Structure formats: structure tokens, C-alpha cells
Amino acid sequence: MRKSFSEEETDPYRRPTKRSTRMALHWLVQGCQPGDSLVFHYSGHGSQQKNHTGDDVDGYDETLCPSDFESQGMIVDDEINTTIVRPLPHGVKLHAIIDACHSGTVLDLPFLCRMDRQGRYVWEDHRPRSGMWKGTNGGEVVSFSGCDDDQTSADTSLMQCELALSKITSTGAMTYAFIQAIERGHATTYGNMLNAMRSTIRNANDQEGGFVTTLLTMLLTGGNLGSGSRQEPQLTANESFDVYKKPFSM
Question: What are the residue numbers of the active site?
Fold first, then answer.
């Protein structure tokens, strides 16, 4: 079964409002049973706001911005974790694909895979110092996100050269890179997936010259050519694991 929302929809119940998004998150995990495999894909706007509880390492809550967020407010990572992560029972697997700005830890999962350009990695412990539980009820959660918490994610509709991801459809750069990694046979392990996604986005930026590269660099750095902060997809999980030994499976 699938639920999908789009800003192009005329049906108010199929538009990505705060209310409909919240309802869909509850629907996703409602009645799930061992053997179920769930997927949450979000491609849209993301942001941050100051955290006042001390349960985020960077001092900020990551957020999703529904279509009516200016009047109804954003959906905060704490709520997402409470809704679809903590209730997840043993034997249920959830994959999240979050293509948004500032989305690195938007599920508030306990562990983040910090990987360098050579593919070497360590798991960062993001469990709150307060001891608040951010894991599951025995289930498994893995999240691919478009960028780190302090980065922004590009939209391929603004990238008009051949290798800048997509000339035909408007989608997030990370969503495109995720699909490409699977179609090109890199979906063997989680580590290979993450490396392939990063390479797709990095190559789009590095291999073209002139105006398009300048524009793409601005997109991947949030409009600041001097920041040196490129969009890098991230991997978080409820438990740490060997990313090069664990088979990728949805």
C-alpha cells in the first residue's frame, strides 16, 4: 500500500499539509507486523530551529516544512522520531529517504555514519545526554538523507547540463542519486550505496566548467561559493553496523 502527496494535487487531502503529513506518518506504522518493510520518502523543504531540551548534539532541531508551514508550523525531528521510530516493533524494517535541506539527523536516530571521501567511516553517537530513548521498540530503521544538518540540498530542475543529474524532471538531487545507485548496480551494501550517491552528486559538480558549474556549486553550498561545504548525503540508523558487510535490502 502507498500514500503520496504533491503540491500539484487539487484534492486537499492529498496535498502535503502539516495535517496530512502527520496523518500519513501515523498511517505508515499503524498495525505493522514482523516481516513488514516500510518506506518513508520525503522530497521537499527542510529547515532547523533552536533546540531547548538539550537532546540534539548540534543544539538544533531539524525540521520538515509542509506546504502550509508558514501558518501551521514545521514538523520537528522529535515528533518524527516519536511517531515512526520509537513504536517500531521487532521484525519490522523502516527505510527513510529524506531529500531536504538540513536533513542529516531529521529522524533523530541514535547513530550517524560519518564517512570521508575515501569511504572510511566511524559511527557518531547522537544519543541524548539526558538519556532520552531515540531508538525503536525492537525494529530496524535506516535513513538516507540529502545532506548534513548544516548543509542544503539541491533541486535538479535548476541543473541544466547533461551530467547535472536530470534535464527532464524536477526532483531532489539526492533522490536522483539514490535511484541511480540502484539502477547502476551499487545497491549491494549500505556503504556502497552511500558512496555511489555521493559520487553522483560530486561528479555533477566537478566535471563541468563555466557558468553551470558555478550555479551548481552555489546550489550545493547554499548559495555561498566560499563556504566549501558541499552537499553530502548522510546515513543514520537506530543501531551501528558494518556498512560494507550489511547487504542493502528494502
Answer: 45, 101
